[in-house]
Design goal:
- 38% of the residues lie in helices and 22% in strands.
- By secondary structure, the chain is α/β, with parallel strands linked by helices.
- The termini are far apart.
- It is built from 19 helices and 23 strands.
- α13 links the parallel β12 and β13.
- The radius of gyration is 25 Å and the shape is globular.
- α6 crosses α7 and α15 crosses α16.
- 49% of the residues are buried.
- The strands form five sheets. The chain has a nine-stranded mixed beta sheet, with helices on both faces.
- The longest helix has 19 residues.
- Glutamine binds next to β19.
- The site of glutamine has 10 residues, from β19.
C-alpha cells in the first residue's frame, strides 16, 4: 500500500530529477588571465543568461582565492559590496550580478573561498577523518574544491553549472583551483569545458592591438595542464578576423571559439554582444547540444532599450561614506538602473560623501536633488552628515529612502528634531546613550565573533494595511534580506507614531520594526532590510520603482 503524501511524492520526483540531472549536468569553468577586473562575472552571467533564454537551468558559482572565510569581514574599500543571499550567506558582489541577470536566487554554495575550503579540511582533520594521513594541498584541498563544485551540480537539478575562478591564472593562491579544474575535466570528460578571459591591449603609440599577453597567459594555463576551449578577449577596439585567427593559432583553439568582448556602455548589453559573437552556440556545440532553439531575449531587449533611450531624467543623491568606490554600493546602483528602466527615465546618481555634508553645506549638496537615499553602513564616520541629510529631505519634502543604517539615521533624526529628544542616538555609536532609539538586538548581546554573526538573510515582514509600504508591495506579507546588529527600540514606537512616523512593517514573530514611513511626507521610507539585494532585471524592486516614481513626480512638478 502506498502511504506517501502528495508532498513526499513531489519531493521524490524532484530528487529523481536532480539525480538524473546530476549525471547530465555540464560544467563550465571561467578563468581569467593578464589582469584582474576584466569582467569574468559579467561574462559568466551573460553566458548563463543566453543558456537560460534557451530554456536551460543554469547556476553560477564564484570561487574566491582569498583566505577570509567570506567577504563579510572585509572593508568595502577592499572588495566592494558584501552581497547577502536568501540563506544569509555574506558573499562576493558577483553573486549580485548572477541574480540580477538570471532572476534566480543563489546561496552559500554559490560562493566558496579558500578560507572556507581550508576551514572544512582542517575541521575534518581535527575530527580525525584523515587519521594516519598527511593532509596536503593535493589531494585534500583540491578534492574539497571539487566537492564544492560538484555539490551544485549534484543537488540543484541544473543543466549547467558555471564556475568562475576568482583571481588571475598564475597567482600562487589560485593554483589549487586550476589544479582542481584540471582533475575535474579528466573525471567529467565531455561534460566540462574551460573559458579563459584575457585582455587584448591597444597600444596607442603603435595604433595596434597586442595578442602577446594573451598568448603568455594561455601558455601559463597550459603549463598547469589546462587547455582552454574558448578564449574571450576583452578589448577596447574591434579585433577583426586576422587578430582572431592569430589568437586561435597561438592559443590552440578553433577560430570560432575566439570571442570578442568589446567595452560596453552598460553591463546589460553584454549578453547580446555575446550572442552576436555566438558564445552560447560555441558552448552548446562543444557539448554536442542542439543550438537550433533561438534564445528568448525579448524582455531583456526591451529593458535595454529603456535604459538606452530614456524619456526623462531624475537626479538622486546617494549619501554614504564609501562613495570613492562605486562597487561599495553596487546593488543599490543596479537597483536604480532597474527602477529607472521601469519608469522609462535615466537615474543620474550623485554619490555624496556623508563626511562632506554638514549643517552649513546642506542646501549646496542636496537642494537640486529629486530624491535622496541614505546608504547602509557601519560605525561613526559620516553619521552626523547622514542625520542632517535626513532632516533636509524630511523638511523639504524631497523623496527619501533610508536603507538599514539609513533607516536608523532617519529614526534618530525624527527623535531628535520632532520628538525633541536631543540625545537620541544609536548605541552602535554611543553605547551609553540616554535615548537609545536604536539599540543592539537582544540576541546580539552575547555575540563576540565577527564573521557571519549579524542578523543575516531572509526574514518575514508583515506590512500594515493602508500604508505607503502596503500600496507599494501590494501584499501584507513579504520577505526581505537583512544584514545588521542593531534595531529600532520599540519602547519609543508609540511616541513616534503619535508624532507622524509610523512602523509600516514589522517582523511577525519578534515585532522588530522593518519599515518606517512618514505618511504626511510625499515619499519617506526607511527599511531595516536591504531591498537592493532582491532587485533584478526581470523583477525591479517595487520600493526602488516607487522611489524613482516619486523622484520623477518631484522633478516634473
Ligand atoms: N550598523 C547598523 C547595524 O549593524 C546598520 C547595518 C547596515 O546598514 N547594513 O545595525
Amino acid at each position: 500500500m502506498c502511504t506517501s503524501t502528495h508532498g513526499e511524492l513531489l519531493n521524490l520526483q524532484s530528487e529523481r530529477r536532480n539525480s538524473f540531472m546530476a549525471d547530465k549536468c555540464k560544467y563550465i569553468f571561467v578563468t581569467g588571465g593578464v589582469t584582474s577586473s576584466l569582467g569574468k562575472g559579467i561574462i559568466s552571467a551573460s553566458l548563463a543568461k543566453l543558456l537560460q533564454a534557451r530554456g536551460y537551468r543554469v547556476t553560477i558559482q564564484k570561487l574566491d582565492p582569498y583566505i577570509n572565510v567570506d567577504p563579510g569581514t572585509l572593508n568595502p574599500y577592499e572588495h566592494g559590496e558584501c552581497y547577502v543571499t536568501e540563506d544569509g550567506a555574506e558573499t562576493d558582489l558577483d553573486l549580485g550580478h548572477y541574480e540580477r541577470f538570471l532572476n534566480t536566487p543563489t546561496s552559500q554554495a554559490n560562493n566558496v573561498t579558500t578560507g572556507r575550503i581550508y576551514q572544512e579540511v582542517i575541521n575534518r582533520e581535527r575530527r580525525g577523518d584523515y587519521l594516519g594521513k598527511t593532509v596536503q594541498v593535493i589531494p585534500h584541498i583540491t578534492d574539497e574544491i571539487q566537492e564544492c563544485i560538484k555539490k551544485l551540480g549534484n543537488t540543484g537539478g541544473f543543466d549547467f553549472v558555471i564556475t568562475e575562478i576568482g583571481g588571475t591564472v598564475g597567482d600562487i593562491e589560485s593554483l589549487p583551483y586550476v589544479e582542481a579544474v584540471r582533475q575535474l575535466r579528466l573525471e567529467l570528460e565531455n561534460r566540462a569545458m574551460v573559458i579563459h578571459l584575457t585582455l587584448i591591449p591597444y597600444l596607442e603609440a603603435a595604433g595596434e592591438l597586442k595578442t602577446k599577453p594573451t598568448q603568455h597567459s594561455v601558455k601559463m594555463l597550459q603549463s598547469l595542464g589546462v587547455q582552454p576551449d574558448v578564449i574571450v578577449a576583452r578589448t577596447s577596439h574591434e579585433l577583426g578576423e586576422s587578430i582572431k585567427k592569430k589568437i586561435a593559432q597561438f592559443c590552440n583553439v578553433r577560430k570560432k571559439a575566439v570571442i570578442q568582448s568589446i567595452d560596453a556602455s552598460t553591463i546589460y548589453e553584454v549578453p547580446l554582444m555575446m550572442k552576436e559573437e555566438q558564445l552560447d552556440e560555441v558552448v552548446l556545440n562543444k557539448f554536442d547540444l542542439e543550438d537550433n532553439i533561438k534564445p528568448d531575449l525579448d524582455s531583456w531587449i526591451s529593458f535595454l532599450n529603456k535604459i538606452k533611450y530614456p524619456k526623462s531624467r531624475v537626479t538622486v543623491g546617494l549619501i554614504g561614506k564609501y562613495v570613492e568606490l562605486k562597487d561599495a554600493y553596487k546593488s543599490i546602483l543596479e537597483a536604480f538602473i532597474h527602477a529607472g528602466a521601469y519608469n522609462e527615465c535615466k537615474v543620474k546618481v550623485e554619490l555624496i560623501h556623508s563626511e562632506s555634508v554638514s549643517k552649513g553645506s546642506l542646501s549646496e549638496h542636496l537642494s537640486h536633488l529629486d530624491g535622496i537615499l541614505v546608504a547602509p553602513g557601519f560605525g561613526e564616520r559620516g553619521i552626523e552628515g547622514k542625520i542632517e541629510t535626513v532632516k533636509f529631505a524630511r523638511e523639504n519634502n524631497i523623496p527619501f529612502f533610508g536603507i538599514c543604517l539609513g533607516m536608523q539615521c532617519a529614526s534618530i533624526e525624527f527623535a531628535r528634531n520632532v520628538l525633541g529628544l536631543e540625545d537620541a542616538h544609536t548605541t552602535e555609536i554611543e553605547e551609553k546613550s540616554k535615548e537609545p532609539v536604536i539599540y543592539l538586538m537582544e540576541d546580539q548581546k552575547t555575540v563576540t565573533e565577527k564573521g557571519g554573526t549579524m542578523r543575516l538573510g531572509t526574514y518575514a515582514c508583515a506590512v500594515k494595511k493602508d500604508t505607503l509600504a502596503a500600496s507599494i508591495y501590494s501584499s501584507d506579507n513579504i520577505t526581505e534580506r537583512h544584514r545588521h546588529r542593531f534595531e529600532f527600540n520599540n519602547t519609543y514606537l508609540n511616541e513616534f507614531e503619535k508624532n507622524g512616523m509610523i512602523a509600516s512593517g514589522k517582523n511577525p514573530e519578534s515585532g522588530l520594526v522593518e519599515i518606517i514611513e512618514i505618511p504626511k511626507h510625499p515619499w519617506f521610507v526607511g527599511t531595516q532590510f536591504h531591498p537592493e539585494y532582491k532587485s533584478t532585471v526581470d523583477n525591479p524592486h517595487p520600493l526602488f520603482v516607487s522611489f524613482i516614481g516619486a523622484a520623477l513626480k518631484k522633478h516634473n512638478f
